[in-house]
What does this fold into?
Amino acid sequence: MKVRTFLYIVLALGVLYALAALFESNREVLERPFHVWGGVDLPVGLMLVVCLGLGVAISVLAGLTREFGQLVQRRRAARRTRRAEEIEEEYSRGLVAVLEGREDEAVRHLRAVLERDSRHFNALLKLGEVLRHRNRVDEAIELHRKAHHLKEEDTRPLYALVDDYEAKGDMERARAVLGRIIALKKQSVSAWRKLRSLHTKEKNWDKALEAHEQVEKYLRAGDPRDAADRRVGRGLRYEIAAEQLARGRPKEAAAGLRRILKDDPQFIPAHVKLGEALVEQGQETEAVEAWYRGFELTGSPIFLTVLEEHYLERDQPLAAIEALKLCVERARKDTVPRFYLGKLYFRLEMLDDALAVLTGLEGRASYAPTLHYLIGRIHERRRNTTEAVREYRKVIKEMELVQLEYRCRCCGRTEMEWAARCPGCGEWNAIEVNFREEISL
It folds into this structure.
């Protein structure tokens, strides 16, 4: 036996002995009658025992009740936990189906989640996204609205609603929802970028620039998208200048274009449009110099086309020839300028000069079907059928292209006409001639 147990026994015996002595010395008091209901008399001692027993019974009953309540709560909590785990497992299966592109199966899993828990926030968001991708935009809107009501301070349902309305073509409501996001988080760069994108899609360049200025204001230093945002800003300012020129305000347009070129001398559309603005002001010499400078800085062949068209529209073919010759002299790589010069000679029916220039380019370009086509046309006009057929065969070999193709550096989209902004990815200053020059050793 442990010492502590022995001491407890001794203490209990001492207490019992003290109680026995106490009761013995108060026997007369304990034997006195105690009147209860109905005329019944009980000894005081017995009454004390009865009261003690009732107290013990009440305590035991209270304890049992509490334990039973806790047992019920634990069982309910276990059921809730098991149910939540089953719901999350179903939701996970839905996410996997989304990631693997099995949208029908994803919809089935996510709807099963919502059948068991109609307030499952993430399931509402994800199912709405899937339905939007399946062009069921109205259903997506309802789900995202419900998610927003569940968590009004969370901006994710609001961003989803913006995408829903944009997919539906309701730009006004999309902008209204973005306004609510900005009211919640004024410094949200993502919200301002999205607002800028919506205005850009509607070609509302002034509003887009206002949103862009907010992006620049709240952008954190070192943000990896900083360079892309600067490019977008230049593109928006370019579009504003182009609108000013179209509305007959060439002086303001020229000032805006010069500011763009000061920030980025490689911005080709600004060089082209600056020359047009100067022509509108009657400063044709300055316009030609602007195009020369643009060609020297960027090497873009679009300036060769611009110079050629500028002089031919004014019935100055000799000036066009001299302009292209000057570009050949100033070019660091003269393959493309020489091709344009030869093409101009052909256009002006100066076949001997055209043939001399164009045949000198054979072997310098790995992909130039238009070069072979023009040489073939020259031989055909000279009735040199054998040489013409040989050149046409080269054109057929090179994908049967009969005119220059323009290509976006960013997305690879090809077009038959040059543009300041790619219609595919929306990037400015990315369209270039699809003309691959051989690199000399």
About this structure: The radius of gyration is 44 Å.
